[in-house]
Amino acid sequence: MSLDFAATTPLTATEEARRQIEICNACRYCEGFCSVFPAMTRSKAFADGDLTHLSNLCHNCRGCHYACQYTAPHEFDLNIPAALAEVRQDSWERLARPQALARMFHERGVAMAGLLVVALTLFFALIAATRPTGGEGFYAYMAHNMMIAIFIPAFVAPLALIGLSLRDYWREVGGGRVRLRHLAKASDMAGRMKNLNGGHGDGCNFEDGDRFSQKRRIAHQLMMWGFLACFAATSSGTILHYVFGWYAPYPLWAPPKLLGVPGGIAMVAGAIGLAALKLRADPDLGARRVWGGEMAFIVLLGAVAATGLALYAATGTGAVGPLLAVHLATVMTLFLLMPFSKMIHGFFRFTALVAEAGKLEKTR
């Protein structure tokens, strides 16, 4: 283990993470905090792929930093949350296609998302101005077939790009054969946000180093489960339309509304919670250069849900047309930016949990 702090050549993000992880591996005080530390103890030397794997297991809860005795002003100057955040961010950008777009969004996310929402709002407003000859509800402003023709490619193409990124990630971290039990364990970990409980069940220190809190875990769960409920609402509407011939608009008791309305409310609450916590948290314990992109992603998710709820509330009024254009614009912006925004973190972290389940099984 090299502890040459006199070197004048700046270390790369990967080299700095390796230096810090090697010190952590010698100490092991934080072994029970999250999945990173048990995974770290399997190795004495860390290849680049090992660091990529550890960084994507990290949920940036920051508990290890506040518990560490080797943070500044100690000469070791450890800041594991920031070191892993930089490697994690680099993996998302490096494995994205195209890389330049990913770097641009993460550093200028607010401007990019805002401009795209405005441009797409104008686009959908122009389409709505043509007013189809028939249709009820939303379809009175945009024909169903046109909506499908626009959104299917905008959803499938980004998913294909994400699939290519995850394939490269799997190869880089040395992921083995996937078993059903690995997926089940990863799903359980992700669903309960286990890596945000601080290892002891009291929560993490994300926004306050002196106090444990479940706020970030709850906000993440509201956002995740709310998003999945909204996705299920859209999926159920598709099934009702094509399989049962039951066309929108749907009553409140129908599956699309039973899932979509609570899901939208949960997403808005989650976005408010995540944004508030991020504003209070120390930016030096994350990847500071992408703070704006991360906040843009939170705001975009909240806007998707809020505009959807507003659109439902405006049913039967003259506000439906303008609100529909804004809502469709925010949804398409979210879809188009999926491979480049922080939306990618859900895919990478789940994949890391699957890989870790397999690696852990091999050591037993």
What does this structure look like?
Keywords: Membrane, Transmembrane, Transmembrane helix. The protein has 364 residues and is mainly alpha-helical. Helix content is 66%, strand content 0%. It has helices spanning 13-27, 36-40, 48-57, 63-67, 80-94, 99-130, 144-173, 180-192, 215-242, 255-280, 291-313, 320-336, 344-363.
Gap from first CA to last CA? 27 Å
Secondary-structure-based class equals mainly alpha
Using only CA atoms, what is the Rg? 22 Å
Q: How many domain regions?
A: 2
Major beta-sheet overview: none
Average pLDDT over all residues? 89
Proportion of beta-strand residues: under 5%
Would you identify the regions where 5 or more consecutive residues have pLDDT less than 50?
none
Helix content: 55-70%
Q: State the total count of DSSP E strands.
A: 0
Shape estimate: elongated
Element-by-element helix/strand order: HHHHHHHHHHHHH
Count of DSSP H/I helices: 13
